[in-house]
């Protein structure tokens, strides 16, 4: 993989503060730079990605890899459809069926989940497929060690409040069960980055979840501090 930017670190040196490599080209925040750095460290196998919740594809986590590094893969979204985007509502019941339908390889480099609701439950349901890296949106309103998620609803609809997704601690525990290590969150408290645990050694220095966690830098402010969106009438459930 050609490294686009000349950051001053050796490939054989462990990275601890990956946030300093944040870069936004097509991503919402600094995900482009974080992902580029991760794959610079661990290499690639087939440069294949799956991203759902991609919107119209203009601002997403995999467009930079596709356009700058010649990756290929599957884009899905519940509302948008184009030559590049498959219009599919992804649920825990159909996620692996959709992967099979679109001929996703069992082992691939990157999975990006951003569906603003059932993210935890959909990731939990992926059993057969083994992405090397997973990027998933977390609900940063709930800091460690709180383990909560939305109650599963296949027809979940996001409202403009704090009822969405799952807390970082809930996702970290799920990732650990599935063989992944949490290595970073973007600085705005939106996405968490997981790498298969057998790829972490000699590449990354892993901090505690408390230090990896990033609080919300979006939504409303209370006493000058971001608190996410408005409080919801719906309650998250404990995991």
TrEMBL record:
Pfam families: Methyltransf_21. It comes from the Bacteria. Residues 42-142 form the Methyltransferase FkbM domain. InterPro entries: FkbM_mtfrase. This is Methyltransferase FkbM domain-containing protein. It comes from Candidatus Woesebacteria bacterium RIFCSPLOWO2_01_FULL_39_10.
